[in-house]
Amino acid sequence: MERPPAGMQPTWKGTFCLRITKIFLPDQTESGIIVLVNAQEIKKLPPGPKAGLGIKLFQQRIRDAAGFFEAMHEQYGDAVYFRLLNRRFCVVYSPELIEQVLVTKRDSFHKGPAFKKTLIVHNPTTLTGDGDDHRRLRKLIQPCFKRKNLDEYAKIMIEATVKLQEDWKEGEAFDMTAVTRKLTLNIASPVFFGRDMHISSSLIEDVLYTLTWSMKLTMLPMASLIAKLPLRNNRFRKNTHEALDRLIYQMVDKARRDEKRVDLISSLVHATDEDGIERPLSYEEVRDETCIQILASHETSANAMAWCFFYLGLNPDVRVRMEQEIDEVLGGRIPSPEDYNDLLYTRAVLSETLRITPPTYVVGREAIEDCTIGDYFIPKGTIVQPFWRAPQRDEKYWPEPLKFKPERWLEKQSLERPKYAYVPFGGGTRNCIGMGFAKLQVVFALAVIGQRWRIDPVSKEFPEVRTLGFYAFKQGLPVTLTERKSFHT
């Protein structure tokens, strides 16, 4: 890196360094110092821990990412700047700063490296693409989630949940996270591949394992080189992805021969934008979009369901009120897609769960140019991470923020609360494209299961969690079953 001219060597014990023509960010700089003087304009980095390789910080983040982010917030405030190994990060916590990153200044950022560099996909997708690529994909794929399609998917969701309970017995004990994973997979298989295809749960679990491994790699120096080494995890990833590819390409061939198919892969194969301008998805693009959607929807929906049942078990009054609504709306019959809008309190249970414990609680954006967020300077190449779990649990925006109160969603919402104080599905043009699908899946699971069963966590203590990538139960969620007929005779 070019050094400053003689006579302008920085003194790091002071409060600032000066440079007339270029930004100077030496390896040992501390965040919070003033870094730029240009035409009388002075800007500074956000506060944060002292610079260095950040090895200790990296270890803390790997062990408990959510706890790491929360500790940084408590110590440094609404924007924190730090280094982890070969990368520099800035985490933002306030609704105003989150909105700037996701919406008002989005053109200064591209998608972060978490999914993009995991070797899961090789082409831009709605989750990993940027700029024109992302806009084209959104235009092509958004119609796949239109109301008519969602109604068909909802029928599959309801059927799968009814079938799930066929062998349940009074007093039975099991891991609820295993059940919700099985359910979301049983839904994903016919939704994505059609009713005449099947994808094994073990394959999806294997792909998710490789995703965790790949996400860890993205945080290491020379990640692309490590990914090519003959390591056991690398070989396992290669074999797993090849097995998934065979299934996806087989389905693509079926879809191209039969235009009447209504599964999601067929919708992707035949996707066109409303104006008919954008080129259709290629063979490889369908593969990548399918892969990324399965991974993202499976993990987040399964975790959201499990957290809903955890909070219902801890809040019996809430559960009783939800059961009363289900009984009134359904009258003992199996739900239909049209019932979704009438399940107001059940939907509120999901909204409150996503507020307190959003499965996806942070995202990454990479600054593609020097820019500012709030009053702070953000250098090009910085990974900026909106941590929306913070404002969603902040008493400034939510009375009794840690209390599970679904009824708050049935009340008139405060006009003073910033829009980005609640964004469990992200915001702006990059919000979750499958948001409607995910909500249907969880709400109908609550309604179908809640008709007949009460699910109680074995322990009332808050469970151990794993937080790398998603906020999830670390050791599962042991529960017991009680049939509701004993309460409604």
Task: Please give the structural blueprint.
Layout: E1 34-38, E2 41-44, H1 55-63, H2 65-76, E3 79-84, E4 87-92, H3 95-104, E5 109-111, H4 113-116, H5 131-141, H6 147-164, E6 173-175, H7 176-193, H8 201-218, H9 223-226, H10 232-257, H11 264-269, H12 283-314, H13 316-330, H14 344-356, E7 365-367, E8 371-373, E9 376-378, E10 383-386, H15 389-392, H16 435-452, E11 453-457, E12 465-466, E13 472-473, E14 478-483
What do you see in this structure?
The protein is of the alpha+beta class and 489 residues long. It has a single domain, classed as Cytochrome P450 (Cytochrome p450, Orthogonal Bundle). Helices cover 45% and strands 11% of the residues. It has helices spanning 55-63, 65-76, 95-104, 113-116, 131-141, 147-164, 176-193, 201-218, 223-226, 232-257, 264-269, 283-314, 316-330, 344-356, 389-392, 435-452; strands spanning 34-38, 41-44, 79-84, 87-92, 109-111, 173-175, 365-367, 371-373, 376-378, 383-386, 453-457, 465-466, 472-473, 478-483. The strands form 5 sheets. Strands 3-4-10-7-5 form a 5-stranded mixed sheet. A 3-stranded antiparallel sheet has the order 6-14-11. It has a two-stranded antiparallel ribbon with strand order 1-2. Strand 8 and strand 9 (376-378) form a beta hairpin. Helix 6 runs parallel beside helix 16.
